[in-house]
Specification:
The protein is α/β, with parallel strands linked by helices and about 350 residues long. It contains eleven helices and 16 strands. It is globular and about 60 Å long.
Length: about 350
């Protein structure tokens, strides 16, 4: 079968031919119907050799959907031909966090060698993918896999960040969304769907700010030296009760710190390496800073339900599997509007 793999440090993705995987006991094989690309893939592929821990070759794709094709021994409650989205942050399944469906915060996964598909385990950027357990499958229920596959990360991650700060999204409050890329443009829709907060979108790209307006942002601000002053002006000098930074680079982290209100929340979602100092005389009184990670299984169900009623959608660029390398190049250079999806 064809697969998109990272095979050599520093070389980038390649389309290769590999054997079709066979499901072991308790496992499920899906025939992939859609796989999403993510900036996290490039974060992994840009790591120097002494920091790279994901194994080679690595089949990419931590956003996946497909149709059940073959069942491993002992699998029950799953039928061949059924369509599912893959819940990506796999945990041990036994600990307190996992028992709540919060496998994204499993404290034992790393020590047990449990890794997400595409981020250690073979991912969905291939014609077939193995899912380790039925609990990591969420029924699509008639949703178009190409249109919603990105919600398994680009929807779930902002949803988890936003809902954990939902008590700050009260009527009259302001939410700042920094970075209107794959996650940010979905995040704006989520805020609008679950709250009455005013949304201010920030980006360096006028095209992405136009997308922000299209998906529901009340105001847009060009990122730059005047951005903080403009946001303060839009909030009557008070700042924003919530700031969601989907870039996470140092300039955006600094902007987040500059515009968060007293007793506000900053969620640094992007993995750009920015760092924020926090504490007395560093951040406004009562302000909290958090780096949330992915989301829970129940939250993925809720995100797909939002898509089902038309409250959330993803701007998608489609590629065949042979076009995956081109898609990754476009993503790397910031040329993808919304999310790129490979359709094997």
């Amino acid at each position: 079968m064809k697969a998109v793999q990272y095979r050599e440090i520093g070389k980038g993705p390649e389309v290769v031919e590999i054997d079709v995987p066979q499901p072991g006991p308790g496992q499920i094989r899906l025939k992939v119907t859609a796989a999403g690309l993510c900036h996290s893939d490039w974060f992994v592929m840009d790591l120097p050799e002494d920091q790279y821990t994901y194994g080679l070759p690595l089949t990419l794709g931590h956003e996946g959907a497909g149709v059940v094709d073959k069942l491993g021994e002992g699998v029950e409650g799953i039928e061949v031909g059924e369509a599912y989205a893959i819940y990506g942050p796999w945990g041990c399944g036994q600990c307190h966090a996992c028992s709540q469906g919060r496998e994204n915060y499993c404290p034992y996964a790393a020590d047990l060698g449990i890794t997400p598909p595409g981020l250690g385990a073979p991912g969905a950027m291939a014609e077939y993918v193995i899912v380790d357990d039925r609990r990591h499958l969420v029924p699509l229920g008639g949703l178009d896999p190409v249109e919603v596959v990105s919600l398994t990360d680009a929807g779930l991650t902002p949803y988890h960040a936003i809902t954990s700060a939902q008590h700050k999204l009260y009527p009259g409050s302001t939410a700042v969304v920094i970075g209107v890329g794959g996650l940010g443009h979905v995040g704006i829709q989520i805020i609008r769907a679950i709250s009455a907060a005013t949304v201010i979108a920030v980006d360096i790209s006028e095209d992405k700010l136009a997308l922000a307006t299209d998906v529901g942002a009340h105001h847009t601000v060009v990122s730059g030296p005047d951005a903080a002053d403009r946001i303060r002006e839009l909030t009557g000098g008070l700042g924003a009760q919530t700031v969601f930074d989907f870039a996470g680079v140092q300039p955006t982290v600094d902007l987040s710190k500059a515009v968060v209100a007293i007793d506000g929340f900053v969620h640094i979602v992007g993995i750009g390496g920015g760092v924020m100092s926090a504490g007395f005389f560093q951040t406004p009184m009562g302000a909290a800073v958090r780096a949330p990670y992915w989301g829970s299984r129940s939250e993925l169900i809720e995100v797909l339900d939002l898509a089902r009623v038309g409250a959330v959608g993803v701007h998608v660029e489609r590629y065949g599997i042979d076009g995956a390398v081109e898609a990754y190049e476009r993503l790397h250079h910031g040329e993808v509007q919304g999310r790129a999806v490979v359709v094997p």
